[in-house]
């Protein structure tokens, strides 16, 4: 009973933040996650073939010299919006029958600061978190510095989270 109350309090607090509140309560064996590894590898191959991981393509985007990356990002936004619309309209559930819930998020100035820092890091390094591993996989091992920096930044955020504007 106490665990349910603690879980409900945790979900209520998370709804105020930008953290995920749709975590599955199901437990699976370790090999259940191999499908995510396979999809991740395929996703990395698509990123490489579409030149999404290309430092030059990313620099072209930030210099407003090419539409390539804007087209990819824009099409991903459209697919995401259509997907959310369909999930809400038809009350689609997960493959395990769990309800998908969308919770309203409050806007705050910390999101602007975070977005500016994220964009600056993306422009300087030519990498965002999505394709980091694909970039390393293509042989751009210097991106390991960016990966370590992303991990360090995540740790610092977690450490300072309670003191930051949310």
UniProtKB/TrEMBL annotation:
Pfam families on file: Sulf_transp (PF04143)
Residues spanning the membrane: 34-56, 68-87, 112-134, 140-160
Alphabetic keyword roster: Membrane, Transmembrane, Transmembrane helix
Name by which UniProt lists this protein: Sulphur transport domain-containing protein
Protein's organism: Epilithonimonas pallida
